[in-house]
Amino acid sequence: MPTPPDPVRRATAAEVARLAGVSPAVVSYVLNEGPRPVAPATAERVRDAVRQLDYRPNRAARALRVGSTGMVGLILPSVSNPFFAAFSEAFQAAAHQQGLAVIAASSDAVLAQEQELVESLPRHGIDGLVVATVMHLADSPALSDPGLPTVVVNAPFPVPGVHALGPDTRQGARLAVEHLLTVHGHRSVALVSGETAAERPTSRELGWSQAVSACNADTGPIVRVPFDRLGGLDAAQQLLALPERPTAVFATSDAQAFGLLHGLWSAGVRVPGDVAVVGFDGTDDGAYAVPPLTSARQPVAAMAAAALDALHLPPGSSHELFALDLVVRESCGCRPA
């Protein structure tokens, strides 16, 4: 019986062929299910040899033959942000179901770095690219063409030349703020918004503003900080330094909300007794906040699956928005179920 090859190197198709008593071409026909038929008994001998030698086809070599590596790229703004961590998990799970591998990279929420990755990742032989963008509407025409199927996610606006999708952030923000105003009777809601270079208000800020107008409420203070926990902590300090402390706050990301909750707790402020808080993202981490965080929830699994499916669309432009629902917990003032 042939001795398996040295475990420090991969077995080859030729070794599989020798063990099975067939030609390398027959090995290829069995593994690729064609183009020529192979007798069932012969095919079984090949599969037995593959298992004995732990043979794994060289994807790069196969790509040269059939034009596909079975790998897709994923660019994320941050791997520490709980929403993008959840999106990454959902995307990789969807890719696995299709037999695809994922190469992920972080742009550190820097647009220039995102653009560099859009240009560099295709050199690693990926078949398609999904970009969780930090672009704003004014930036979208500047997206580099990576020369392969590309889908932009985290996009509440269309992106010229590519298929794009994202949460309906205006609808989600309005849903969260209206809950504070109508269900809990607050007369105003402070806004903790992300720092951006955009000249126009973000869609989350527009949703907050529309909710305030629709409920004839007073416009609350706005604090602009990074979309992370430290930003939320800074926001808590700024809000508590105001002459009149707000009774309710809407944070435009769960990460900000977590920092905000910690900052309020550190200052002895009770949530929701003194200040009610709602977030945006609806991550699972919110269930473990103190108190558990009420938040507008993005449909992560649906968006991840849609992004992967959009890679197979014909070249062109499209834009799809996904509605959010509200995960009601205790930080807003609702009692636990």
TrEMBL record:
Q: CDD domains attached here?
A: HTH_LacI (cd01392), PBP1_LacI_sugar_binding-like (cd06267)
Q: Which GO terms describe its molecular function?
A: DNA-binding transcription factor activity; transcription cis-regulatory region binding
Query: Which ranges form a coiled coil?
Result: none
User: Has the keyword Transcription been applied to this entry?
Assistant: yes
Q: Which InterPro entries would you find in this protein's record?
A: HTH_LacI (IPR000843), LacI/GalR-like_sensor (IPR046335), Lambda_DNA-bd_dom_sf (IPR010982), Peripla_BP_I (IPR028082)
Q: Which UniProt keywords apply?
A: DNA-binding, Transcription, Transcription regulation
Highest taxon of the lineage: Bacteria
Matching Pfam families? LacI, Peripla_BP_3
Q: Which PANTHER family match?
A: HTH-TYPE TRANSCRIPTIONAL REGULATOR GALS (PTHR30146:SF109), LACI-RELATED TRANSCRIPTIONAL REPRESSOR (PTHR30146)
Name of this protein: LacI family transcriptional regulator
Q: Give the taxonomic lineage as stored in the record.
A: Bacteria, Bacillati, Actinomycetota, Actinomycetes, Propionibacteriales
